[in-house]
Write a structure and sequence with these properties.
The protein has 239 residues and is of the alpha+beta class. It contains 6 helices and 9 strands. It is elongated.
Length: 239
């Protein structure tokens, strides 16, 4: 969260939101702070992170699952750019091929693009924010511009990817105008992992039981005939 605040000098942060207030209270907070775009990070079960992007007050809004989060301190990459400088935003061609991605592109532009001549920003560009749609997810990267002539880039961080869940017509409410059919909730994913692990354990137990049930037939020892005692019946049969 602190890394995102560094990348957006025009942002205005607020304290934690109580669950009993509901998400619609965020619209009132944005109105008091004179904001027309908001990002809300929601943590569930201390495991799953969700992100809301909403255009206040009339919408639309989108909800994402945040995955593969790596902070600047964690990555320790060689790239470095000035704090609060303005970014260049780049999007791959996939954002122009589908209507819902075009809408997400516009929302990301309004969220991450620093307004020109903003009092808290530096008046030049020295880093690039890249958004790439691949494998059904939006991948975020931040690069320092090292060579303007040849387009040299060095990654700075942070890294994360967004998995779109739903798009609503209003701000944190309204009708669902898009729902990702490929989305799988973290709870469902963890349940499937547990079921797969139980199936592997069950198969291993069955294999062990079958192996134990096989009767091991002892091999005949060649030395047994040397110490064989000849009986009377064998003498009569031989005679």
């Amino acid at each position: 969260m602190n890394d995102l605040k560094v990348l957006m000098p025009h942002a205005k942060s607020d304290s934690k939101l109580e669950r009993k207030e509901g998400l619609y209270a965020i619209n009132e907070i944005c109105e008091m702070k004179n904001c027309n775009m908001t990002m809300f990070l929601e943590m569930r079960k201390k495991l799953d992170l969700f992100m809301w992007l909403s255009m206040v007050p009339n919408g639309p809004s989108a909800r994402f699952l945040v995955q593969n989060v790596h902070t600047m301190d964690e990555l320790r990459l060689t790239g470095n750019h000035l704090k609060f400088s303005r970014p260049l935003l780049t999007f791959n061609k996939a954002f122009d091929e589908q209507p819902h991605l075009a809408l997400i592109k516009e929302m990301l532009k309004q969220m991450f693009a620093t307004p020109n001549m903003h009092p808290k920003s530096k008046p030049f560009f020295d880093h690039v924010l890249g958004f790439t749609y691949l494998d059904g997810r939006i991948w975020f990267r931040n690069y320092q511009i090292t060579d303007e002539a040849e387009g040299g880039l060095v990654e700075v961080g942070p890294r994360f990817c967004l998995w779109l869940i739903k798009i609503f017509s209003g701000s944190f409410s309204g009708n669902v105008i898009f729902e990702n059919p490929n989305y799988k909730s973290p709870n469902q994913y963890r349940t499937e992992l547990k079921m797969a692990a139980s199936q592997r354990y069950k198969a291993k137990a069955e294999k062990t039981a079958k192996k134990a049930a096989i009767e091991i037939v002892p091999k005949e020892d060649e030395l047994d005939e040397i110490f064989h005692t000849i009986t009377k019946d064998e003498i009569k049969q031989a005679g």
